[in-house]
Design brief:
This protein is an alpha/beta fold. The chain has a single domain, classed as Lambda Exonuclease, Chain A (Alpha-Beta Complex). About 35% of the residues lie in helices and about 20% in strands. It is built from nine helices and eight strands. The strands form two sheets. A five-stranded mixed sheet has the order 2-5-6-7-8, with helices on both faces. α2 crosses α3. It is globular, with a radius of gyration of 20 Å.
Length: about 260
């Protein structure tokens, strides 16, 4: 079965993605194979889990959806869309002295769609790489800033130094790379909009209040080209790869098997 896709036909791409998502990678196939940003994250975390997922169709157990986080994301998008339509900066951007406005582009909704996103057909590997952004801001020099919304609730100072937040950085860098492959001028600076749920209120009263802050990050996408080649090598091999050193899933299976 062949499904043809062109950059102008996002609907066809969506059908193509749904078809390919149900079919593991075939080393003999000449059809382009779609790989999302999250699957690249999975490869970096554990090549074995990645190979089992995309080569054998054996996925990790699913996690429950973070619906509160999704609600915050959706409301932030609506809020920034108000300023996008007016062509002026959001008050937060003024507060943090960010000389930019939310990007107004005909494809912004497509780029924010989980099943479409920004995509690029990489010719050397024949992968269609894609990922869905939260937002894009544009400065007066027509450079784009990748923007990611994050929800949390902590009494600690928010930073990007926690180990699990290293994935946030690679996420932003991957989006920067995708945009550059599509011909856009992209700043190395990315912004994370953190919404921190407050715990110091006297009562809940049916509402959750947040403190919102922006953290800037200087990214580098130099790791991506090699990683994509490594992904291709991993998928083409017939032997199951080694586990990632800190893969909790593989560690559980290995320890669980001792008691069978």
């Amino acid at each position: 079965m062949s499904i043809f896709w062109s950059p102008r036909d996002s609907g066809a791409f969506f059908m193509y993605y749904r078809f390919m998502a149900r079919n593991p990678f075939d080393p003999k196939s000449k059809e382009p194979f779609p790989i999302s940003r999250s699957k690249i994250d999975l490869f970096l975390e554990c090549p074995r889990c990645f190979w089992l997922d995309l080569r054998q169709g054996v996925s990790r157990p699913s996690m429950p959806a973070f619906t509160l986080n999704s609600a915050v994301d959706e409301l932030l998008k609506k809020e920034f869309d108000i300023h996008r339509a007016k062509g002026n900066p959001h008050p937060l951007m003024k507060e943090y002295h960010i000389d930019a406005i939310p990007l107004a582009h005909e494809k912004i909704d497509e780029w924010r769609n989980t099943f479409r996103g920004i995509r690029y057909h990489e010719p050397k590997t024949n992968f269609i790489l894609f990922g869905a952004i939260d937002d894009l801001w544009q400065n007066p020099q027509k450079e784009l800033y990748v923007v990611d919304y994050k929800s949390t609730s902590t009494t600690k100072k928010i930073s990007l130094e926690d180990q699990y937040k290293q994935g946030y950085k690679k996420q932003a860098e991957f989006y920067q790379w995708l945009l550059r492959q599509n011909g856009f001028k992209v700043s190395d600076t990315a912004y994370f909009v953190f919404c921190n749920g407050r715990r110091d209120k006297e009562a809940f009263d049916g509402k959750l209040e947040f403190n919102v802050e922006i953290i800037a990050y200087e990214g580098s996408d130099k790791w991506i080209s090699k990683t994509i080649v490594d992904v291709r090598t991993c998928l083409k091999q017939n032997e199951i790869p080694k586990s990632g050193e800190d893969c909790q899933y593989c560690n559980y299976i290995q320890n669980r098997s001792k008691y069978n």
